Amino acid sequence: MFILRDILRPLQDEFSSIHLGRQRSRWFVYTLLAFIVSFTSSISSNILRSLNTLFGLSVNRRCLEIEVNALKGSPESDMDWNACVEKFKKCAAYSAKTFSSDSIDILIDRVMNLERLENVSLLSESLVA
Question: What is the pLDDT of residue 60?
Answer without folding.
Answer: 61
